[in-house]
Amino acid sequence: MRRIYMDHAATTPIHPEVTEAMLPYLGERFGNPSSVYTEGREARKAVEAARSQVAEALGADPTEIYFTSGGTEADNLALIGTARANRKRGDHIITTAVEHHAVLEPCHYLEKEGFRVTYLPVDGAGLVDPEGVRVALTPSTVLVSVMHANNEIGTVQPIEEISSICREAGVYLHTDAVQTAGALDVEVNRLGVDLLSVSAHKLYGPKGTGCLYVRKRTKVQGILLGGGQERRMRSGTENVAGIVGFGAAMELAARECRERSDHVRPLRDRLIEGILENIPHTELNGHRQRRLPNNVNVRFSYIEGEAICLRLDFQGIAASTGSACSSENLEASHVLLALGVAPEEAHGSLRLTLGRDNTTEDVDYVLEKLPPIIEGLRAMSPLYPGH
Q1: Is 257 a catalytic residue?
Q2: Which domain holds residue 242?
Q3: How high is the pLDDT of residue 1?
Q4: Which residue of 93, 282, 332, 344 has the fewest C-beta atoms within 10 A of its own C-beta?
Q5: Is residue 286 part of a domain?
Q6: Would you say residue 173 lies in a domain?
Q7: Sign of the torsion formed by the C-alpha atoms of 298, 303, 306 and 312
């Protein structure tokens, strides 16, 4: 059966050039980067070369890049590490109601340590009002964390405006750029952020690798204690093959970013327009213009997204209801609820996220198969007014 993959927000296939770069470090170049002999020095050289590749892609200095096991660890380090390191300055953190759980859960954890957290609301399109950040700031605020773009609905936040407000107040700003690295400009000085999280497997790199960018003179305390690797910020023997792959993926992403975005954006628009025009009782989730170039998130009234995904899978189409990290969670998406969507409506959402290998034929195949799936499910729904 023909398979069409449209869940690139969950993970991406490894780019062939990335695999090629990694292979030696899965075999003969197996050294520990902390060892002083030849094999160790070879591994260390590879890690530092990858650090330079990542730094260049972000417009940063290599000394500002700290490798992690992925976006979740990077977010945890940014939130918990910064809060603890700056406890004497203050005990207040500002974030948003639509953040990934990798930010929200550390915030809940810090509340148990005595920190106060303000969760800013968003509008019906998922946008944060920068003035809301300004109003929420207090003399004891030490960190603001606002994601660059939402992993579920694709809404891109006004990070540059928020960064100007944070700079005026002398408060650190972190952004989760897991969905935007490789899709949008994530040059750290243009964004104006002090900390930025990236995950390799979202941009055609390997799973289990990522980084936290930490601007010089930003106080962050390591949360993994041990041998003192990553300049005592993140103890643990480095995942050399993964880091090499991450470096290669970031270099490719920086080089191909515009080309990739220009490829998926018209496919995204074709998919959105085709769904909204051909399937009644359907709404687009997220902002129509300020949106990731590959993200389509729609909700269908009277039915559930899980059933849609299963039926799409039977037709050879891989899609999701929202965040892959919580796909087994039957609760309504906290992101959609924050937009003001009713719980029963939120359950009817479908996320389709395009990638570099998707084609117009793929989109047309989805547009052919999806309407009868929705019609069939609604025919069984006691809620559907067509009965």
Answers
A1: no
A2: 16-253
A3: 78
A4: 344
A5: yes
A6: yes
A7: negative
